[in-house]
């Protein structure tokens, strides 16, 4: 073998060895990055842990805050608003009632024909209308005139069997899902707008008076007999279907709860005690906070960058608006550690690009190769060529976020049941407690729903669990407003 041959062989050998070393180095580097990414997941999972002992502390804190909020205005982060709803539907309501459900960029108008005892809801019709963006930021008169005009069109389409009783104006239940300080069953001042609305002149005004003026301008004779928020509407709708309903919860984009309280247990109530001895309380529970809530660095960053830092902390860990965003933030941190390669995918840096419905779809992926996960990463984040191992980690992340939210919701429910004395069985009592639940998160995110219900069983124990039931109250808020209009009708005395 000549010198040249030997040299070539040596050079080739060195090159092969060097190439092998590069491959090994890359593998080690990749393996190191994977280990780092897994550390992030493990750390996040640990921070989100919700053992039963911690959930019981959260429930106790909820009960304490409920007491404080009922004792005085501003006494707690929980507003515990008095709704002036002191009588829920009984099933005896009769006649034609309307509802207006304003909760976001769309509103719905409904009419319901009630048949009285054993008659139930004989007939119902509704129409959904979208609000033009300029009406959401214009003047108060423009917004309410637009709504009143649509309501007038709807009334004009009444069929013969929907006609109201002669000589009476039509009565309306108004579901208004914005923060309001109620002053009676049919009046309340707007505290602030949310959900993209911004009409400064309406803040501090009575929203029923604003609507009434708009109805008069339309020449429509209609009286608002109940102003309610969507959670209270859900409670009324649930109660009409099942007399054992005493709590309602909305788990959707946002979250809230309402329940039936003994009037004597509300120290801040200074009026005459209602005949029923009861009062529905709108908790505004999304604003609950406690040192026992398992908050992570991702939750704190989300809160700091939100439009309302320090507010709605509970809602920010349990509701549909935020779950997908928490998930995105953890994924982004993993991407910074090269989970998806050397560059963080630009789309992943966009806040709220991963909505909770997307997270839910990935969480529920049962295909062997997790194709739904792969497709969502490709279509929404423009991340392709992910490994099955990587996709499995993404499903695991979804599970961590959803499970924590669901279990904390269950702890909140336990807090309400404790306040009502319904977390134990009293000897000789055959008490049934039904919770009316509504909202897209509860309805469509099956893993979340199952986790919540299983956790509540775990918290209550087998015996108590037999007395507690969760019922889905679909579209309770609109129907509920019409029913509350009926149960607070000015003509009830005439019929008794």
Describe what you observe in this structure:
- The longest helix has 45 residues, at 3-47.
- This protein starts with a helix and ends with a helix.
- It has helices spanning 3-47, 52-71, 133-136, 140-156, 207-217, 230-241, 297-304, 315-318, 320-336, 356-363, 371-381, 388-419, 440-444, 446-460, 462-465, 476-487, 492-495; strands at 81-82, 94-102, 106-115, 121-130, 170-176, 180-184, 187-190, 222-228, 245-251, 255-262, 278-282, 433-438, 468-472.
- A hairpin with a 5-residue loop joins β3 and β4.
- The chain has 2 domains: 43-79 and 242-473, Hexokinase, domain 1, CATH 3.40.367; 83-227, ATPase, nucleotide binding domain (Nucleotidyltransferase, domain 5).
- A 6-stranded mixed beta sheet has the order 1-11-10-9-12-13. Strands 4-3-2-5-8 form a 5-stranded mixed beta sheet.
- α9 (320-336) runs antiparallel to α12.
- The protein is of the alpha/beta class.
Throw out a few tags for this protein.
kinase; Hexokinase; 5-stranded mixed sheet; glucokinase activity; Hexokinase, domain 1; 2 domains; alpha/beta; fructokinase activity; 17 helices; Nucleotidyltransferase, domain 5; 46% helix
List the helices and strands and how they pair.
Layout lengths: L2 H45 L4 H20 L9 E2 L11 E9 L3 E10 L5 E10 L2 H4 L3 H17 L13 E7 L3 E5 L2 E4 L16 H11 L4 E7 L1 H12 L3 E7 L3 E8 L15 E5 L14 H8 L10 H4 L1 H17 L19 H8 L7 H11 L6 H32 L13 E6 L1 H5 L1 H15 L1 H4 L2 E5 L3 H12 L4 H4 L1
Parallel strand pairs: 2-5, 5-8, 9-12, 12-13
Antiparallel strand pairs: 1-11, 2-3, 3-4, 6-7, 9-10, 10-11
Helix pairs in contact: 1-9, 2-12, 4-5, 6-16, 9-10, 9-12, 10-12, 12-14
Keywords: ATP-binding, Glycolysis, Kinase, Membrane, Mitochondrion, Mitochondrion outer membrane, Nucleotide-binding, Signal, Transferase
Pfam family, one: Hexokinase_1
Enzyme class: transferase
């Amino acid at each position: 073998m000549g010198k040249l041959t030997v040299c070539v062989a040596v050079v080739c050998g060195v090159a092969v060895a060097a190439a092998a070393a590069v491959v090994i180095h890359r593998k080690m580097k990749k393996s190191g990055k994977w280990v780092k990414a897994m550390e992030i997941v493990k750390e996040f999972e640990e921070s989100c842990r919700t053992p039963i002992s911690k959930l019981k502390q959260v429930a106790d804190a909820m009960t304490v805050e409920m007491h404080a909020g009922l004792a005085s205005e501003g006494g707690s982060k929980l507003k515990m608003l008095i709704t002036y709803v002191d009588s829920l539907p009984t099933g005896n309501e009769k006649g034609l009632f309307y509802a207006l459900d304003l909760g976001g960029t769309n509103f719905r108008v409904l009419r319901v024909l009630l048949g009285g005892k054993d008659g139930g809801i004989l007939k119902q019709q509704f129409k959904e209308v979208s609000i033009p963006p300029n009406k959401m930021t214009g003047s108060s008169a423009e917004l309410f005139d637009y709504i009143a005009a649509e309501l007038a069109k709807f009334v004009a389409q009444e069929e013969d069997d929907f006609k109201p009783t002669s000589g009476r104006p039509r009565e309306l239940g108004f579901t208004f899902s914005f923060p309001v300080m109620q002053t009676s069953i049919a009046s309340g001042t707007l505290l602030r707008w949310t959900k993209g609305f911004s009409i400064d002149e309406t803040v501090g005004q009575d929203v029923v008076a604003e609507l009434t003026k708009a109805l008069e301008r339309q020449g429509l004779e209609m009286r608002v007999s109940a102003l309610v928020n969507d959670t209270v509407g859900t409670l009324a709708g649930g109660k009409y279907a099942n007399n054992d309903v005493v709590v309602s919860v909305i788990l959707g984009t946002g979250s809230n709860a309402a329940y039936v309280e003994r009037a004597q247990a509300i120290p801040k109530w200074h009026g005459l005690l209602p005949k029923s001895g009861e009062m529905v309380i709108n908790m505004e529970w999304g604003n609950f906070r406690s040192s026992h809530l398992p908050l992570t660095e991702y939750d704190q960053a989300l809160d700091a960058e939100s439009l309302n830092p320090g507010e709605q902390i509970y809602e920010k860990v349990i509701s549909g608006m935020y779950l997908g965003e928490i998930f995105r933030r953890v994924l982004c941190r993993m991407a910074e550690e090269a989970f998806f390669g050397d560059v963080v995918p630009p789309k992943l840096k966009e806040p709220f690009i991963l909505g909770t419905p997307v997270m839910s779809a990935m969480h529920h992926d049962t295909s062997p190769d997790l194709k739904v996960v792969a497709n969502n990463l490709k279509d929404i984040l423009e991340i392709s060529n992910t490994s099955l191992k990587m996709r499995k980690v993404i499903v695991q992340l979804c599970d961590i976020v959803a499970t924590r939210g669901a279990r904390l919701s269950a702890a909140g429910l336990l807090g309400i049941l404790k306040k009502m004395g319904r977390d134990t069985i009293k000897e000789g009592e055959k008490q049934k407690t039904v919770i009316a639940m509504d909202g897209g998160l509860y309805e469509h995110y099956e893993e979340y729903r199952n986790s919540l219900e299983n956790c509540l069983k775990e918290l209550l124990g087998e015996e108590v669990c037999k007395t507690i039931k969760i019922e889905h109250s679909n579209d309770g808020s609109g129907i509920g407003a019409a029913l509350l209009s009926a149960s607070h009708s000015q003509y009830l005395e005439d019929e008794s």
